[in-house]
Amino acid sequence: MRSALVTGGTGTTGRRVAAFLRTRGVAVRTASRHPVTGDDQHVIFDWADPRTFAAAVDGVDRVFLVAPLSDSDPASAVESFLDAAVAAGTRRVVLLSASAVTDAPSGLGALPPLVRARVPEVAVLRPSWFIQNFVGNHPVAVGIRERGRITTATGRGRVAFIDPDDIAAVAGQLLLGNPIPDGELILTGPQALSYDEAAAVVGEVTGTAVHHTSITVEELTAAIEASGVPHDYARVLAEMDEEIAGGSEERITTTVQDVTGRAPRSFRDFLIDAHRTSSNRPERAVA
């Protein structure tokens, strides 16, 4: 084996994949648009600048692929990247997609068939929604902290939220060379919850009342767009909530267990660990 490239190497999943591989002795190159202090294996990579592709894929035989997140139709940029990667010797690609994205002739759904057509060995990961969205700086987490409220267009639809560490473990095992399972790789947590139920769990864990408000797709699109997201992509994100309302994310799979040999972490256990960590973090001294 030569080395692995992790695109989106500073993101929620990418940095976890890189850490997983490095602890197992794999030479890892991370790639993103900005430099990373202390990582001499990091390269500057910009989907909008094909001149950055060659340095990223040089000597790489495996790639964790995270497509440009703000592009509603990223196939052209990804196609150019794949051509450069395969020419440099890449044999296996693990593509991070989403459970809400199905194969299609355009948009995000065009990526799985594109990668399969260009690369000899392909695994397409379709994880459910991240539990990580309930902590940190994600809009869901900000709404919880600042207003005690979660706002979606999901109605009473349920989601089997998944820990990004479990996604990274699956990706890492496949990038190590494990056989790629047949069929779709839908990754979920062990339990499907509505946002009303998730809000109740957050409240129980944190001791703070949290409520869920469901709004229309149009209202959610406008809210996402107001945060700086382009309209077309904001609409795509809002329509994913509409699919949840229709029951698209209530499924639970055994993929994490099958690939990694261990069960995925539950929503409650994740939040307990996150809350404990934040509670134990020392406060900064104020002059």
Automatic annotation (TrEMBL):
Protein source organism: Streptomyces phaeochromogenes
SUPFAM superfamilies reported for this sequence: NAD(P)-binding Rossmann-fold domains
InterPro entries per UniProt: Ergot_Alk_Oxidoreductase (IPR051604), NAD(P)-bd_dom (IPR016040), NAD(P)-bd_dom_sf (IPR036291)
Protein name, as recorded: NAD(P)H-binding protein
Record domain NAD(P)-binding: where: 8-107
Record Pfam families: NAD_binding_10
